[in-house]
Amino acid sequence: MVCVQTRAGLLLTDVASIAQQAFRARDWQRLSQSLGTKGERLFDWARLPIVHAGVADGRHWLVVRRCLDAPHELAYYLVWAPPQTPLPTMVAAIGARWRIEEDLEATKALGLDHYEVRSYLGWYRHLTLVLLAYAFLVDITVHSHLTTAAQQESVACPPLIALSTSEARHLLAHLFWPAPTSAPLICQWSIFRRTHQYWAGYYHRRRRKISRVSLLVEPPDLPSTFAGSSPGNFLALFPGKFPGVFLGGCQAGSRSCCTPHTKGVIL
To answer: What is the Cα–Cα distance from 107 to 216, expressed in whole angstroms?
Structure first.
């Protein structure tokens, strides 16, 4: 049970029924929570002040997130924020949680949770080495982003998603040990994966835009290199390199799911 301040006064009810009882259609704001693998993660957001210690002090808030594709799926956040904090700032803080989860997932792939030590010193050394390896991967991706940006300004390049730390780790693992039989093939396969993920994100964003606006909305402009083409045309860049490759289905990860849950955020 939670007590919130509404237009009609105080409301004491369970969290799951607040959205239906307290919010009007104009109370919802469409905001981007963060940038996902397929573009901006847009949701509808609304908030209500929570009655804390008998008063609504403007610091404690209940923020509700509604999924665009499934409006009945809601997520709830308990937020503590300084007075006069706007809703977009709260949403940005909620979206920053994904960065922490991404870092944890990436470091676990490097062995963050794979240790058997009995002393603080051994545990500290293990974590230091893992974080050092992760910093090395981050440095590689940063330099790759700078190089890619410079190339895109000078010449037309195939559309790719940015090099991630996971992809950099994958490349290093296959290029150094064991010795690869064909290093160019490994690099080309990495480019193919990133291009496929780019096109998956492009068509995902276009579908959502058309469904939200109308069927007459023109899709976003295609990159000049692949204007009027499809993801399958990328195979023409490497003839004979990818026999039997099937391009159906999207392999890129998506974070657009909305399962009901409640979390806490402190600004």
So the answer is: 45
Answer for the pair 139, 146: CB distance below 8 angstroms, yes or no. no
What's the confidence (pLDDT) of residue 219? 46
CA–CA gap between residue 34 and residue 29 (Å, rounded):
15
Q: Output the pLDDT for position 260.
A: 46
Q: Model's pTM, two decimal places? A: 0.57
Interatomic CA distance for residues 86 and 164, integer angstroms: 32
Q: Residues 101, 191, 238, CA angle at the centre, nearest 5°?
A: 160
Per-residue HEC secondary structure of 20-57 comes to HHHCCHHHCEEEEEEEECCEEEEEEEEEEEECECCECC
Question: Long-range pairs for 212-215 at CB < 8 Å and ≥24 separation?
Answer: 212/68
Residue 150 tokens read as: 């410079």
Q: How confident is the model at residue 186 (pLDDT cuts 50, 70, 90)?
A: confident
* 198, amino acid identity: Y
Q: Which residue has the tokens 């296959």?
A: 174
Read off the tokens for 248.
Answer: 């159906």
At 6-62, the pLDDT tens digits run 888 888 888 888 888 888 888 899 998 887 766 778 899 999 999 888 888 888 999
Q: Which tokens sit at 262?
A: 């409640």
220 or 54, higher pLDDT: 54
C-beta separation of 174 from 180 below 8 A: yes
* pLDDT for 231: 47
Residue-range domain boundaries for the chain: 2-97+257-266, 98-155, 159-237
> CB burial class (10 A; 0-12, 13-18, 19+) of residue 94?
buried
Contact 148, 162 (CB under 8 A): yes
